[in-house]
Design a protein that fits this description.
The complex is a heterodimer.
Chain A lengths: L2 H37 L4 H31 L6
Helix pairs in contact in A: 1-2
Chain B lengths: L9 E5 L2 E4 H21 L9 H20 L7 H16 L13 H23 L1 H6 L9 H36 L5 H36 L1
Antiparallel strand pairs in B: 1-2
Helix pairs in contact in B: 1-2, 1-3, 3-7, 4-6, 4-7, 6-7
The chains are: A mainly alpha, B mainly alpha.
């Protein structure tokens, strides 16, 4: 296999597996937030603000994988 | 899909300096913000009307949001953070204009913004506590944690940059791919989603910057 093929494979693997973890985490976070809002609707403002920030934090992991994939595809140091 | 999202598109040169399209859009947005602010504050009245009314609404909303996060008077931080939010919201929404690529979809703009936040956090922290007290805060609760604290400073700035870049750039890319696949109306719902994503990312960037500044300003009071 050439280095280009391995890079493409690596990029696909990075995005696909990198999306699993944050997806599960975001689902859990959202479910808990829904639960909390259903129990205590008056706290919805604080909850949704914290939820947004937390989701952004979780999402960062998936974005890191995306950046790694883009580096492999467009700025690969081993391909000239 | 040939163009790398990490490269910047040079429009023209001023002398030896290449001017990228992101820079042009950034300056246009800054000019727009300045113009609207100037229009709104030109004839200030005790009973606001028109532009001034709208601007006061924006400023007061930002101020109340920030008060809830830093739990103190946000006035010293409001100019920086408010401008950051307004600029980011405009920059992310500029992807809706045909032919305009949002400057936040290029790594340099995000790096500059994250750098501003990084410097501002330490500047506010040092101004609040004094240099020695602030530096000592990094060795709390234990000297062993000093490398970890310094590392977290760097990584959180880095992730602030990468998060904004990744979100905006990847969404622009998704719309681009869809446009090449299916022509006319298919990308429209996703462009509507771009409005939401752009605003949420601007909000998150600002909120995180506020949280960082709030932590730097009050870290010594808790310890």
């Amino acid at each position: 296999m050439s280095i280009e093929m391995i890079s493409i494979l690596g990029a696909a693997l990075a995005v696909s597996f990198g999306a699993i973890g944050p997806a599960l985490g975001e689902g859990r976070a959202l479910a808990s937030a829904m639960d909390a809002i259903a129990r205590q609707p008056e706290a919805a403002n604080t909850l949704s603000r914290t939820l947004f920030v937390g989701l952004a934090m979780i999402e960062t992991m998936a974005i890191y994988c995306l950046v790694i994939a883009l580096l492999l595809l467009y700025a690969n140091p081993f391909v000239h | 899909m040939k163009a790398s999202p990490l490269a910047s598109h040079v429009l023209f040169h001023i002398g030896p300096v290449p001017i990228a399209s992101a820079v042009v859009v950034t300056w246009a947005l800054m000019a727009l913000l300045v113009l609207v602010s100037w229009l709104g504050t030109r004839r200030r009245a005790l009973r606001p009307a028109g532009w001034q009314n709208a601007l006061e609404l924006v400023v007061e909303t930002l101020e109340s949001q920030m008060t809830q996060i830093v739990h103190r008077d946000p006035r010293p931080y409001l100019p920086l953070l408010g401008t950051l939010f307004l600029f980011l919201a405009l920059a992310n929404l500029s992807s809706l204009l045909p032919g305009v690529s949002p400057p936040t979809a290029h790594l340099e703009t995000d790096a500059a913004l994250a750098g501003i936040v990084f410097c501002a956090v330490h500047a506010y922290g040092v101004r609040r506590h004094g240099l020695w007290e602030y530096v000592k805060g990094y060795a709390k609760p234990n000297l062993l944690l000093l490398p970890l604290n310094v590392l977290s400073e760097i990584t959180r700035t880095f992730s602030l940059m990468i998060r904004l870049f990744g979100n905006i750039m990847s969404h622009e890319m998704v719309i681009g791919v869809l446009l090449t696949l299916a022509g006319l109306l298919v990308p429209v719902p996703l462009m509507a989603l771009a409005v939401l994503i752009g605003l949420v990312q601007a909000y998150i960037f600002t909120i995180l910057a506020t949280v960082f500044i709030g932590a730097a300003v009050e870290s010594q009071e808790r310890a």
